[in-house]
Amino acid sequence: MTTESIIDCAGLRFAYGPAEVIHGIDLTVGRGDLFALLGTNGAGKTTALELLLGERRPGAGTVRILGRDPWLARRAVAGEVGVVPQEGGCAPDLRVRETVRLWLRLRGHRDVAGPADALIDELRLTRQATRRVRQLSGGERRRLDLAVALCGDPRLLILDEPTSGLDPQSRRHTWQVLRERSRRGTTILFTTHYLEEAEQLADRVAIMDAGRLALCATVAEVRRSGSLTEVFHRIAGPEVNS
Amino acid sequence: MIARSVLLIAGAELRMLTRSVPAMVLAGALPTALGALIVWAESDTGKAGDGATAALVVVTLMALTAYTAGTTALASRRQQFVLKRLRLSGARDTAILAGVLAPAVVLTLLQAALLFAIVAVAGAPGPSRPLAPVLALAAGTALAGVLAVGTAAFTSAPEYAQFTTVPIALAIMGGGYRVAVAPPGDVSAALLALPGSAVAQLTRSGWEAVPTLPALVALALAFVLAAPLALRLFGWQPRG
User: Average pLDDT for residues A143-151, to the nearest whole number?
Assistant: First the structure.
């Protein structure tokens, strides 16, 4: 199934001062994969994503994103990757339409009016298009975060909890958007705390536990030994926010 | 490409600035009023001379608008995770910083233009070497931007900028004011090391026979030394 490697990590380690939080991750994500990275709070998911994006320098091991080292070629990698960061980060006093147009221009588009409206429509933000970001609800902001990540039609999407704060309808719609992108060849790596979301949406899942990759398999392989929820709780313990 | 990124980010920042009336008033009216006060005091006493008055105006705007407002803007955008996200666009770090600092730069230039227009209308003679104050304003604003990046490295939230900017703002204004009231030949090389001193000396040289080369060298040196250090110190993640 996997042909071209889009994300390739080997022996990846990272420490905040003396405390190592990523203990040697090996991970390969192929072109068109829809890959879910799961784990409890503090398992190391966000740090792992920051390492993939070149925002932090690995203590050891190698990372290749689209064939490049993201720490050494951060800008080149950023130009080809759409990201939903956990914290959002859209400027609060810009309007929704202005935000999407700005990001399309930053991604090199010249004629942005049509593509911006198409993205706004795709994420069902048409009614909010003239609102300022600070006036949006949490779910609307999250949809705008995804619209911004989709600007420029990137080859790889790295999404840190893209459906947090979304109502069930919006969440299902977001799944549709991501499935459609995946079908068109976009590689998607996302984190989530919703285990049923990972089971329904992803082709492959990895479970992080205390900075280690405790499991990496296809959803079908996981199901042979129980539901994803059961397997997750077996690895991470029962007291988790699933 | 870098210029395009700067213009795009600067355009967005300026648009947001125009939407915040309190920010416009605080960032714009206070330094303008202070500058106007300097002009008025000089027109009343006539002691300092036209070059010194211009120097006082330029360093005041450099300290209060370009530097202090610039530091606050960077701390604010970092706290909102805007800087971190803009970095994911593939834009250069320097383009992002320049874009976010653009409103402070534009306000400084507008305030200076307004104040010098007021002075001209009031009948004060223009500079015999007009390039000098223009150069001083441009270099002073650029240096203030670099100092803002360095100070933002130690400013964990925008509300703390009112404290973290005090030492350098005082150094800019203190050095500038000292130079402005000193006899032209009495400005030592050590005094020119203060950020506002060289700017004041260069401004003054538009009206008076003041040597410009030491001021230009001091400004160039300050920029070359401070810029890499500020970029190295600056952190893109919100500070705890």
Answer: 97
CB distance A106–B90 less than 8 Å? yes
Q: Model pTM greater than 0.80?
A: yes
Residue A218 neighbours by CB under 8 Å, 6+ apart: A203, A204, A205
Is A158 touching B (CB cutoff 8 A)?
no
- Would you state the torsion angle of the CA atoms of residues A163, B239, A89, A104, taken in this order, to the nearest 10 degrees? -130
Q: Does A184 touch chain B (CB under 8 A)?
A: no
Residues B39-54 have a mean pLDDT of 74
Alpha-carbon distance of B171 to B167, in angstroms, equals 6
Indicate whether B163 pLDDT > 80: yes
pLDDT at A226 (0 to 100):
84
- Structure tokens belonging to residue B28: 């714009």
Q: Which of B84, B90, B92 sits opposite A89 (nearest CB)?
A: B84
Residue B9 has pLDDT above 80, yes or no: yes
Q: What is the ipTM of this complex?
A: 0.91
The string of DSSP letters for A34-100 reads EEEEEE-TTSSHHHHHHHHTTSS--SEEEEEETTB-TTTSHHHHHTTEEEE-TT----TTSBHHHHH
Task: Decide if B237 contacts B155 (C-beta within 8 A).
Answer: no
The pLDDT assigned to B27 comes to: 66
* pLDDT recorded at residue B132: 93
Which residue bears the tokens 């942005």?
A: A112
pLDDT-derived band at A177 (thresholds 50, 70, 90) equals very high
User: Helix (H, G, I), strand (E, B), or coil: what is residue B223?
Assistant: helix
In this structure, chain B runs to a length of 240
Q: Which of A77, A97, A106, A146 to mutate to test the interface with B (most CBs of B within 10 A)?
A: A106
Q: Tell me which residue of B143, B64, B168, B139 sits closest to B107, measured CA to CA.
A: B64
DSSP chain A: ---SEEEEEEEEEEEETTEEEEEEEEEEEETT-EEEEEE-TTSSHHHHHHHHTTSS--SEEEEEETTB-TTTSHHHHHTTEEEE-TT----TTSBHHHHHHHHHHHTT-S--HHHHHHHHHHTT-GGGTTSBGGGS-HHHHHHHHHHHHHTT--SEEEEESTTTT--HHHHHHHHHHHHHHHHTT-EEEEE-S-HHHHHHH-SEEEEEETTEEEEEEEHHHHHTTS-HHHHHHHHH-S-S--
pLDDT, mean of residues A101-124:
96
Q: What are phi and psi of B76, to 5 degrees?
A: -65, -50
